Amino acid sequence: MLKGSVPIAIGGIEDPAAYGEVVSIGGLNPDVHKKLSAAISTILKAKLSVPLTRFFLKFYDTLGSSFGWNGTIL
Questions:
Q1: Against a cut of 0.90, is the pTM above it?
Q2: Would you say 54 and 10 are in contact if contact means Cβ atoms under 8 Å apart?
């Protein structure tokens, strides 16, 4: 989900910025974090003009049992 026009202050400055979260059911590790961060940052810079220094990305690696689907859990 992308939600625009939400004020974000980084260091007290409200210039263009972004915050994102990646949730995965397994498969995340520091190497994957680094690759995803680089790829997503590049897209945000190119498409939304968000400087790399004004983008934060949080990673969550969770179990399938933390997600309900189709009347049960994964």
A1: no
A2: yes
